[in-house]
Every structure is written in C-alpha cells, then in structure tokens.
Design brief:
Elements: E1 2-5, E2 10-13, E3 21-35, E4 38-42, E5 47-51, E6 56-72
Antiparallel strand pairs: 1-6, 2-6, 3-4, 3-5, 3-6
C-alpha cells in the first residue's frame, strides 16, 4: 500500500491472523511505528519489519508523511 498521512494522522490496526507481519518503508516525513509494547521512530529511507498479529499502529510525526506498506499473512 502507498499510505499518506496528514500531520498527526494514524493507522491503528487490530491484530491480523496469527503469524502476520508488516514491512514499512518511509518515503517522506517521520513516523512512529508501534507493535505490541515495541515502538520505533523512522524517517525517510528507514524500513521496519514487525509483528502484525498483535495491536499495531503507524503515526505521522512532525508533519505529513508517506509510507510504502506490505502486509504478509502466514
């Protein structure tokens, strides 16, 4: 997915099927990724891979942001 966020915009997801993973690459701006208790701040060019079978979210920080998101189901 090509996901665009306004400043402070967020995509908050309930757990997907067991074993699901997501891979996100920041194209523009800054985002915070949370998966379960883990959180990570990312900027342009950064990539995160994380569990999507628990509550997770992506939030734009300090302005608009754009990410490339892949969702992999087990």
């Amino acid at each position: 997915y090509d996901v665009r966020f306004a400043d402070g915009g967020a995509l908050t997801s309930k757990p997907h099927r067991r074993g699901a993973r997501e891979q996100l690459t920041v194209l523009e701006g800054q985002v915070q990724v949370m998966s379960g208790a883990a959180e990570r701040d990312l900027g342009p060019g950064d990539t995160a891979r994380y569990a999507a079978d628990e509550p997770h979210s992506i939030t734009a920080r300090d302005g608009p942001a754009r990410v490339f998101l892949i969702v992999k189901h087990a």
